[in-house]
Amino acid sequence: MVTPLLTDLYQFTMAYAYWKAGKHLDRAVFDLYFRKSPFGGEFTIFGGLEECIRFIANFKFTEEEIKFLRSVMPTCEDGFFDYLRSIDCSDVEVYAIPEGYVVFPKVPLMRIEGPVAVVQLLETPFLSLVNYASLVTTNAARHRLVAGKSKNLLEFGLRRAQGPDGGISASRYCYMGGFDATSNVAAGRLFGIPIRGTHSHAFVSSFMGIDEITNKALTSSDGSKKCEDFVSLVQNWLIRIQESSSLHGTFGETSQSELAAFTSYALAFPNSFLALVDTYDVMRSGVPNFCAVALALNDMGYKAVGIRLDSGDLAYLSIETRKFFHAIEKEFGVVGFGKTSITASNDLNEETIDALNKQGHEVDAFGIGTNLVTCYAQAALGCVFKLVEINKQPRIKLSEDVTKVSIPCKKKCYRLYGKEGYPLVDIMTGEDEPGPKL
Q1: pLDDT tens digit sequence for 391-425
Q2: DSSP string, 293-354
Q3: Contact, 183 vs 156, CB < 8 A?
Q4: Is the separation of the CB atoms in 325 and 346 below 8 Å?
Q5: Element of type H or E holding 357
Q6: DSSP 8-state assignment for residue 149
Q7: CA pseudo-torsion sign 92, 97, 98, 104
Q8: What rounded mean pLDDT belongs to the chain?
Q9: How far is CA 148 from CA 19, 46, 88, 318, 363, in A?
Q10: How far apart, in whole angstroms, are the C-alpha atoms of residue 215 and residue 424?
Q11: How far are the Cα atoms of 53, 143, 214, 428 from residue 93, in angstroms, in the given order?
Q12: What element of type H or E holds 11?
């Protein structure tokens, strides 16, 4: 998808005009930077550099692309297309801040030097590769900051992303921004990102009753024994939970179709059983059904992973669920059951996670999708690609809007750190000016 044609038409019309005027080999310097940090914040995380380097490393027009450009620009001379056929990025130099670093407005993320016609052709693809990457990486980092270091963050955004390419990019850069895993299998394969996922509400509601389970056998985790009727083991545990004096009154009859779904899933994945518990009623059905299956798995040497909440008052439900888990641990002596993981999802964003933190909750992991990958709070970062020098002569872009005035000349950038190792300020100097002295 990312080819030399992934650009705006005016890049080619300018390249032709440069070539026609004999200026196409003039040595130009462009800065790629942004004017304002996104989401009303004070920082940005730089993403997209690796993709830019890969793009220029493979920059070459194919004969099919040259043929297409001829059809789009029929009045251009044949020599121009011969020129396009000959060019690559071997004479282009890129200086950049390392990918994943915290960056600030006006400071160039990348400095690109080379023949003006060639570098001009890099503008749009570079902006396309950097703008969204940096925006979603920053969004992910902001979610990490508000969630805290101890919480697991799971990216669930593929189905809400702006198309397949957007979904793949989102998974990659959310991981760079501090997320722990993704639901996106393709991204896991391409980038080595841990993948997570269990089942949906559809899986739970597809079951009508416990009698649907025909393969009831489960071998213990160490292979030493086999339970021929795991379903009965689950049912017995549910009865014990229902008859427990300490849990009395917490719930009544649970959904047997939900219990069937949980049991079936546990039989398929006994090592990684995590149940979505809000299809019917979280506290009256979902949580006790999960506990019955989890306790049966424990008898067979397996440890259930936990539950996911996808609706309702997440703070309240997580707290009540945690209480129930602790009560189960105390009642039946299952060490560690009280710490069983609780995952929350349901259109989460920075604000809702912050509100949960202030309210108090027992959530261990957050699954975040729509607001994360679409960058709902801000649609674009707004990086720009400006000419700052040509043939060693500084160039400036003026504007009645002072924020759009470019900073001319080839620059060097420095970040100064205090004695305790924290960054204090970024400084830009001209290429030939002395750097800051300690």
Answers
A1: 999 999 999 888 899 999 999 999 999 999 999 99
A2: HHHHHHHTT----EEEE-SS-HHHHHHHHHHHHHHHHHHHT-TTGGG-EEEE-SS--HHHHH
A3: yes
A4: no
A5: helix 350-359
A6: T
A7: negative
A8: 96
A9: 54, 21, 45, 17, 12
A10: 64
A11: 10, 35, 65, 19
A12: helix 9-21
Contact 276, 312 (CB under 8 A): no
Q: Which amino acid belongs to residue 186?
A: A
Supply the DSSP symbol for 283.
I
> Residue 188 and residue 174: Cα distance in Å, rounded?
12
Both structure tokens of 53: 């380097």
Domains of the chain are 9-140+382-430 (3.20.140.10), 198-344 (3.20.20)
Place of tokens 């009540």: 320
pLDDT at 252: 72
Question: How far apart are alpha carbons 314 and 277 in whole angstroms?
Answer: 12
Quote the CA–CA distance of 392 and 386 in Å, as a whole number: 15
pLDDT value at 248 more than 90: no
Structure tokens at 199: 């089942």
Give the distance, in angstroms, between the CA of residue 324 and the centroid of all CA atoms in the same chain.
33
User: Of all residues in the chain, what percent carry a pLDDT higher than 70?
Assistant: 99
Q: What is the pLDDT of residues 60-93, one digit of tens each?
A: 999 999 999 999 999 999 999 999 999 999 999 9
